[in-house]
Amino acid sequence: MRYSHQRERIFRAVAESCEHPTANMVYEQLKTDMPRLSLGTVYRNLNQLADAGRLKKIPLADGSCRFDKTTKAHSHIVCEQCGCVADVHLPSLKAIEETIANETDFSLRSYDVVLRGVCRNCRQLSGQNAG
Amino acid sequence: MRYSHQRERIFRAVAESCEHPTANMVYEQLKTDMPRLSLGTVYRNLNQLADAGRLKKIPLADGSCRFDKTTKAHSHIVCEQCGCVADVHLPSLKAIEETIANETDFSLRSYDVVLRGVCRNCRQLSGQNAG
DNA sequence: ATAATTGCAAAACGTTTGCAGTAAA
DNA sequence: TTTACTGCAAACGTTTTGCAATTAT
Fold first, then answer.
1. CA proximity to B93, closest of B105, B110, B78
2. CA B128 to C1' C12, whole Å
3. Which residues of A touch B111 (CB under 8 A)?
4. Does domain A73-131 have CATH number 3.30.1540.10?
5. Would you call A18 an interface residue with chain B, using a CB distance cutoff of 8 Å?
6. Where in the sequence of chain A do the CATH 3.30.1490.190 domains occur?
7. Alpha-carbon distance A21 to A13, whole Å?
């Protein structure tokens, strides 16, 4: 992979963010500084960086994707109200691996745990407005 | 929810299938019998039936959805090669619930375990063609 | 009679792709 | 000089939606 100014900025935008940004969030952030940047370039580079192991791609249940600077294996919890994403380090899930072996004809390759909840901020906001 | 012929056939198509069909699979199957049926009607009804608890909607990581006659809580494993889906009944994962409580600010509402593997059929096919 | 439901077509959504031009090696 | 990369715009596959016509109650 050859150096490119765009890719460097796209990588840093994810690496320096704590909010697991989408491709569009990266695009909107960089656009002010780089008016000719295109959304297609952002998508292409995020996927290349994920393929190269420099970022982690997080496909969400609604079909959109987020990108994470932390490439070590870990899970994510998504807020049902505002859509924000936080990291979770789950203990090893031996029970899952055993169940697949015992109960199905599949050979297990990988798994994700997709967690849904409500973040502290949204709990406080809804506490103010309703019961 | 008022009775409709289309909804009844759409429900039965999922209930009588073992392959966790997509909206489009239901549409293609019924189209021969019901040439005026539209894909929009299939989507509308599958979502209504899922909202009413008569079917379970399974959002996959690639953004597409499948529908399941089994509405009890359970997980699914998706074949990486042919895309087929099988049911898995996982033991309760207390470890997950405790980790969320200890490690994050989120209140956990629900979670899905999305498993990926290779089904028996695909293992046999690739065993014939390669090592 | 009335309002849920339909078929149709268009639009929405996040994402990918073909292409001619640009820039890194 | 070569070829990976870019911007642009068009296309993609899945899903939703607006609307006038139909159908269940």
1. B110
2. 44
3. 113-116
4. no
5. no
6. 73-131
7. 9
Q: What is the pLDDT along chain A (131 residues), one digit of tens a residue?
A: 999 999 999 999 999 999 999 999 999 999 999 999 999 999 999 999 999 999 999 888 777 899 999 888 888 888 888 888 999 988 777 888 888 888 899 999 888 777 888 999 989 987 766 54
Nucleotide nearest B43, CA–C1', reads D15
CATH assignment, B1-71 = 1.10.10.10
Residues in chain A: 131
Maximum separation of any 2 CA atoms in chain A, in Å:
55
The CA radius of gyration of chain A, in Å to the nearest whole number, is 18
Q: Which pTM was predicted?
A: 0.83
Note whether B82 contacts A: Cβ–Cβ < 8 A.
Answer: no
Of B63, B109, B116, the CB nearest to A80: B109
